Amino acid sequence: MENYPRRFIKAGLIYALLGAILGVAMAIEPSLAGRVRFVHIHLNLLGFMTMMVAGVAFHVLPRFNARPVPWPAGVKYQFYLQNIGLVGMMVLHMLRTTWRGGWFQELFILFAASAGVAIGLMFYNLYFVLLPAKDTERPSEVTGDMKVAAVLDQFPQTMPVFLESGFSSLANATARKTFAKVVSIEKACQKHDVDSAEFLRKLNAAIAGKPASAAPVATPAMEEPQPAGKTIQEGEMCQADTMVGSLIKVYPATKTVFEKHYGEGCFSCPGQVFETVEQTAHMHNVDPGLILKEINEAITAETSKD
Question: Is the pTM of this model over 0.90?
Answer without folding.
Answer: no
